[in-house]
Every structure is written in structure tokens, then in C-alpha cells.
Specification:
Number of helices: 10
Number of domains: 2
Bound molecules: pyridoxal-5'-phosphate
CATH class of the largest domain: Alpha Beta
CATH superfamily of the largest domain: Type I PLP-dependent aspartate aminotransferase-like (Major domain)
Distance between the termini: 37 Å
Protein name: Phosphoserine aminotransferase
Keywords: Amino-acid biosynthesis, Aminotransferase, Cytoplasm, Pyridoxal phosphate, Serine biosynthesis, Transferase
InterPro entries: Aminotrans_V_dom, Aminotrans_V_PyrdxlP_BS, Pser_aminoTfrase, PyrdxlP-dep_Trfase, PyrdxlP-dep_Trfase_major, PyrdxlP-dep_Trfase_small
GO biological process, one term: L-serine biosynthetic process
Strand order of the largest sheet: 2-10-9-8-5-3-4
Subcellular location: Cytoplasm
Strand content: 15-25%
Number of strands: 14
Helix content: 25-40%
Radius of gyration: 21 Å
């Protein structure tokens, strides 16, 4: 087999090699059915067992309490930006958002299309390079929910702890950090994540919600955009993205084999430390973008002194087998996305490359 790239793509992103290999083995003939899983009915026993097992694996890994339901939806996290206010924002209520960066802003703007909104806190004055501290966050009494973006994929910041919101449901976009560390699901009314960063391929969005929030949607909402449709039909109202859900199933089994989320977090912190330490010990050659106490362990953003030097870094990194280190076009600079599936060896190779690049250009 040809050499695997050092894949630091932001999304779609790296998938564990063993998961790809297992999927390859089962690709043409799934469990002696004479078919690929892509070719079979989503109403049949084989697919249904994969579907239900995927929910069970999430329940196990995240220790999801009773009274929560896992949904597998389509349309990406971006569709959740609209479905959340459509389903949950009632008359006389406001949808409250913590503005932490590009993705929080998109979620907030969708809610503005639907109803009354409120900004609970914002770090825009600091160019979104930090997560507001918990005591900056103000939730109005008539809030339908408080929405936070757990990890800002573009800016490279991450909540280290989540606000307590009392009777107001806390909703979190975990698209770029779900399963990167243990999570107390009972703190949340709902969490959601597009799969293509930490869960598998694109095409499915995981929603984990308190059942009372998704069991009766307003009557005026179209069928497919109602949470109650998917809740009542176990995410099988229409044809689900069966292959993507199967891949998520495989990724969850792999996480379980790694020792679950405590072990995964330890590995992620070691990976991130390799690169942050290189930045912090570079005497200003590399400049971390996010404020240190808000740094993400998933998306690590940094800059060099000039755009010319950044271009040179990207060009030489590509020649050395690294992929995806260019920052998002909206903010520039450099970004290494070190999701769960990015091996320690890739991060070690990047830290070594960074040190060598500094030696030659510093
Ligand atoms: C990638 C991303 C999204 C958008 O996900 P889609 O599935 O492409 O709609 C939303 N929020 C965050 C935090 C992301 O990283």
C-alpha cells in the first residue's frame, strides 16, 4: 500500500486506518448477505441491527442518561442551525447564543431568520481568539435555550467547561469535538455534530437530545424538519444515510477499543501538547492564535511573521507529506486539525517538521 498522508484536514478529515480496512473487507459482501450494506433495505434486519447498535455504542461511550434519544439526521450541522429555533423557539421567547466565532455566528444568523434572538456573551472584541468566561454569560429568563459552539473549528478555540443554565436547556454544537473527551450529557438539553470531523464520513449528523424537547414539534413545521418525526420513527422515517451510519458504527467501535473517552482524551492532549509546545518554545517564530486558556485540542491555529513565510511553510509541508495545514480562507494562517483519528505519529512528525522549518528560516 502507498504511504498514508499526514492528514490534518479540517473536515472531512482523517478516519482511523483500521476502520477503513474493516469497511473495505465488508464492502462487497456484508455479513454473508451477498450485498454491500449500501445495497440493502433500511427496513431489513441486518441494517436495523447496525442502526440500533450505533445508538447503543454512543450511549455507552458518552454514558448517555435515560430520557435522551440519539437521532441520525441529514443536512449537516448547518441544518440543525435552523431546526433548533424552528422546533424550540416559542412565542414570547428568545434564542440565546454565545458568539465565539465563525460557526456560532452562522448558528445565530439562522435563528435570526426564525424568531427573536439574544447574545448571551461574545468574544468578537478579541477577534474570537478566546472563549468567554462562564461569568460573562447572561441567559435571560425567557430564553428558549442557550446555544454554545463547543469548539470553533476555524479560530481554534474550545470550551474547557460549560455554563450551568438552570431551567433553560443548554444546546451545544459539538461538530468538531464530539468524543474528543468525556462529556456530562446530563448538563445539556441537546448536543449535535456533523460526522465528518470526529465520527466518520460526511452525510450524517448525530443529535442527542432530551426526549421532552423533541417529542412534540410545532404543527406548522414541515415533516422532515420536525424533531418529533425522527424521534417517533427511530430516525427511519425516510431512507437514512445507511453507509455513513455504518461508518460511524465502526469509528465508535474503534474508540471503544482505544479504551473509551478517557484514553482518547489523554492521547489528544499529548498530541496537541507536541504542537503547542513547539509553538510556545519557538521564541516568537510561531505565534499561537487562540489565547492559551481557550486553546482547542482539536484545531490548532498558528501563524508565522509574514504571509510569505506561511506560504513557504505550506508548500514545504506538502512536499514532506503533510495535508491540510492551510488555515481557513476567512482567517488565514495555519491550522492543524488533530482529530481523534489523527495518529500521535502524525503530530510528532509535524512538531519535528516545524522545528526543522524554524531552524532553516528563523
Ligand atoms: C463543520 C462544522 C459545521 C458545519 O457542518 P456541516 O455538516 O458541513 O453543515 C458546524 N459547526 C461546526 C463547529 C463545524 O466544525
Amino acid at each position: 500500500m502507498s504511504q498514508r498522508a499526514f492528514n490534518f484536514n479540517a473536515g472531512p478529515a482523517a478516519i482511523p486506518l483500521v476502520v477503513l480496512e474493516r469497511a473495505q473487507q465488508e464492502f462487497v459482501d456484508f455479513r454473508n448477505s451477498g450485498m454491500s450494506i449500501m445495497e440493502m433495505s433500511h427496513r431489513g434486519a441486518i441494517y436495523e441491527s447496525v442502526h440500533n447498535e450505533t445508538e447503543s455504542l454512543l450511549q455507552k461511550l458518552l454514558n448517555i442518561p435515560a430520557g435522551y434519544k440519539v437521532l441520525f439526521l441529514q443536512g449537516g450541522a448547518s441544518t440543525q442551525f435552523a431546526m433548533i429555533p424552528m422546533n424550540l423557539l416559542g412565542a414570547g421567547q428568545v434564542a440565546s447564543y454565545v458568539l465565539t466565532g465563525s460557526w456560532a455566528d452562522k448558528a445565530y444568523k439562522e435563528a435570526k431568520l426564525i424568531g427573536e434572538t439574544h447574545i448571551a456573551a461574545s468574544s468578537e472584541a478579541d477577534k474570537f481568539m478566546r472563549i468567554p468566561s462562564l461569568n460573562e454569560i447572561e441567559v435571560p429568563d425567557n430564553a428558549a435555550y442557550l446555544h454554545v459552539t463547543s469548539n470553533e473549528t476555524i479560530e481554534g478555540t474550545q470550551f474547557q467547561e460549560y455554563p450551568s443554565t438552570g431551567h433553560v436547556p443548554l444546546i451545544a454544537d459539538l461538530s468538531s469535538d464530539i468524543l474528543c473527551r468525556p462529556l456530562d450529557v446530563s448538563k445539556f438539553g441537546m448536543i449535535y455534530a456533523g460526522a465528518q470531523k470526529n465520527l466518520g464520513p460526511s452525510g450524517v449528523t448525530v443529535v442527542i437530545a432530551r426526549e421532552d424537547l423533541i417529542s412534540s414539534s410545532p404543527k406548522t413545521i414541515p415533516t422532515m424538519l420536525r424533531y418529533d418525526t425522527h424521534f417517533k420513527n427511530n430516525s427511519l422515517y425516510n431512507t437514512p444515510p445507511s453507509f455513513a451510519i455504518y461508518m460511524v458504527n465502526q469509528v465508535l467501535k474503534w474508540i471503544d477499543e482505544q479504551g473509551g473517552l478517557t484514553a482518547v482524551e489523554k492521547n489528544n492532549r499529548e498530541k496537541a501538547n507536541l504542537i503547542y509546545n513547539t509553538i510556545d518554545h519557538s521564541n516568537g517564530f510561531y505565534l499561537g492564535c487562540a489565547q492559551p486558556e481557550s486553546r482547542s485540542i482539536m484545531n490548532l491555529t498558528f501563524r508565522l511573521q509574514s504571509e510569505e513565510l506561511e506560504k513557504k511553510f505550506i508548500k514545504e509541508s506538502e512536499q514532506a507529506g503533510f495535508v491540510g495545514l492551510k488555515g481557513h480562507r476567512s482567517v488565514g494562517g495555519l491550522r492543524a486539525s488533530a482529530y481523534n483519528a489523527v495518529p500521535y505519529e502524525s503530530c510528532k512528525a509535524l512538531a519535528d517538521f516545524m522545528a526543522e522549518f524554524q531552524r532553516q528560516n528563523g
